[in-house]
Amino acid sequence: MNKIVxxxxxxxxxxxxxxxxxxxxxxxxxxxxxxxxxxxQAMQLGILDRIGRDEVAExxxxxxxxxxxxxxxxxxxxxxxxPHLGAHTLITDGGSTKGxxxxxxxxxxxxxxxxxxxxxxxxxxxxxxAGAAQADLYVGRKVVLTPLPENPREAVARVRQxxxxxxxxxxxxxxxxxxxxxxxxxxxxxxxxxxxxxDLARRENRDLLLSFAAxxxxxxxxxxxxxxxxxxxxxxxxxxxxxxxxxxxxEELEILHEALAEADAGKLEEIFxxxxxxxxxxxxx
Length: 285
Prior knowledge:
Blueprint: E1 3-7, H1 11-22, E2 28-32, H2 36-44, E3 50-51, H3 55-59, E4 64-67, H4 74-81, E5 90-93, H5 99-108, E6 119-121, E7 142-145, H6 153-165, E8 169-172, H7 175-201, H8 206-211, H9 215-221, H10 228-237, H11 239-261, H12 265-281
Helix pairs in contact: 4-5, 7-11
């Protein structure tokens, strides 16, 4: 690719640029963002060749545009860039939800919808910003594409190749399948992690409690250090699927509550044993 344009030069966008640079797959990287300090840092770290100042001037000749902003910002961004897209410019994104992003694309890209190939790199971390970007972030990680009926096969192949050049293992789901899956295995765990830390934070003896917290607390709550803005948008964007998963989890908690209240050792061991067996046999892919 001769030129890519990245909106949101943080962990996801910055790592995408660094990975393509390492693969010698891009000539020029231009970045846009809300924070001048972050953009300057991205320049210093070699993520960008140039800070974008004029969207109209930069996107028309871009081979690929990556939207790596929080999902709540994407609709406005799509509306701004749609009239100025080049005929051969493709757009992809790094959003953790897909139904809302696809709806935003249909509402704001209009006749350019065929140029948008939605994606979700499964490579988040609790750290954010340009300083968190890593050239090897996507190596061996999954990236999910959720192609649209309007996408030409060759356009999907080009976006797939870009992520594969970053070292990712690329798979495909429909937007609905994606949001259902990730509500269960990503969005719910983040919600629960935030909830536990928030619960402790409101207690008068929180300093005492945290002074004795160790490995279990650390492992369970690591993801509560993630971006509040990003996870606010994700939870609201995937609200229906997440509410369904939260309801299932509340039912599970009720079962545990009943087992504890009745001192039902057999039930507790049954639950723990099945959970342990599934977790022991699971390896990230």
